[in-house]
Design brief:
Number of helices: 3
Radius of gyration: 19 Å
Largest sheet: none
Oligomer: single chain
Shape: elongated
Length: 73
């Protein structure tokens, strides 16, 4: 797999947790960190898009997630 390499400094309490997750899952530190970063970045992207969409949704009466859910169900 080609890509960039970065160095991440882990807190003393985080490293053993990461190592335990790796041991239990049979995945490498790199695999676990890549997955965690992908999920975190996707969550940030979602939150940013949601903030941009909220004024348009509110203008149409969708003020909560429940409003949207009730409309589509």
């Amino acid at each position: 797999m080609k890509g960039s390499t970065i160095t991440v400094r882990l807190d003393d309490d985080l490293a053993p947790i990461l190592d335990e997750v790796c041991r239990r899952s049979g995945r490498t530190r790199s695999e676990v960190m890549r997955t965690a970063l992908k999920r975190h970045l996707a969550q940030l992207r979602f939150e940013q898009l949601r903030q941009r969409a909220m004024p348009f949704a509110a203008a149409h009466g969708y003020l909560t997630d429940e409003d949207v859910f009730n409309h589509i169900s």
